[in-house]
Design brief:
Layout lengths: L2 H28 L6 H30 L1 H6 L2 H8 L3 H20 L4 H12 L5 H34 L3 H7 L6 H23 L7 H36 L6 E3 L6 E3 L6 E4 L2 E4 L1
Antiparallel strand pairs: 1-2, 3-4
Helix pairs in contact: 1-2, 1-10, 2-4, 2-7, 2-10, 5-7, 6-7, 7-8, 7-10, 9-10
Length: 278
């Protein structure tokens, strides 16, 4: 197994275990009592710790797949150390996504009125109910496909380089690639629809013990498929975004006070008093 495959396997296992641990931590956090002041303080501290590790897991995973130096040498820990400085930036970018999704999803409240208005303006065509249904599906498509397809490439760059407007703009070049959309749609379908069908599949089992085992296995299989599709999607996005960015991302060296860069091709990159020839 090559270093690239080893690194992907490590990231897959880390996300499989890490996300499960975060879910368990959130579950136990909801059970914490809050009758006394010290309990409220402990609950707040636990929430901060869970949020920190949740954002760090996302930022480190994004950064690992975005930078070829990390992928080629399977330097997972170095990628997560590098991602520490960009956690706040990614959290802000995620908050903007949450606000945008919330605003768009609330537009579904107004689709019945919009359906009637469109039908009146056209004075022909489908009924208001059909127009309302189509508008709701359009919002679902935008929220679940278009926005993530635009948000994720920029998020990978932010996790690796922070808020750099030129880099963020260059990340959107992947949207011009038909192969990117094919991979994105396929992995979104595998990571969302397949687990959904598994979770809500109700096999005809009369025995209660068999039903419990079936539910546990279906939930576990759905979770594994979700994490696998997520890691594969970030791998596809990170590698393709990096190819569209001619400027290498500067990585801090393990030695203090020395910077290094990892460009592609025959380039000369200068940092401080050092000149690197490639």
């Amino acid at each position: 197994m090559s270093a690239k495959h080893t690194g992907v396997a490590k990231l897959w296992l880390l996300n499989l275990v890490g996300n499960a641990a975060l879910l368990a931590a959130v579950y136990f956090w909801l059970l914490m009592p809050d009758a006394h002041g010290w309990q409220v303080g402990g609950s707040a501290l636990a929430a901060v710790v869970v949020i920190f590790f949740g954002v760090w897991l996302r930022t480190g995973t994004f950064a690992y797949f975005r930078v070829a130096e990390f992928r080629d040498h399977a330097t997972v820990w170095r990628a997560f150390r590098h991602a520490l400085r960009h956690m706040v930036a990614l959290a802000i970018w995620a908050a903007s996504l949450a606000v945008l999704v919330w605003l768009l999803w609330n537009l579904r409240t107004y689709t019945p009125q919009a359906g009637v208005w469109i039908r009146q303006k056209l004075n022909a065509g489908p009924t208001p109910r059909n127009v309302t249904r189509d508008l709701n599906w359009l919002i679902v498509l935008i929220v679940w496909m278009v926005i993530p397809a635009v948000w994720l490439p920029i998020a990978s760059t932010i996790a690796a380089a922070g808020f750099r407007l030129k880099r963020m703009a260059r990340s959107l070049r992947v949207l011009r690639q038909p192969a990117y959309w094919l991979w994105f749609c396929a992995l979104m379908l595998a990571g969302a629809y397949v687990p959904y069908k598994l979770v809500w599949w109700l096999p005809d089992l009369s025995d209660l013990r068999k039903q419990a085992w079936s539910m546990g296995l279906r939930f576990f299989l759905a979770y594994v498929i979700l994490i696998t599709a997520w890691v594969a999607l970030l791998l596809v996005i990170g590698a393709r975004v990096e190819k569209e960015d001619p400027e290498p991302i500067v990585l801090s060296s393990d030695s203090p006070g020395v910077n290094s860069a990892f460009p592609r091709g025959n380039k000369i990159v200068k940092h401080d008093a050092w000149t690197w020839h490639f």
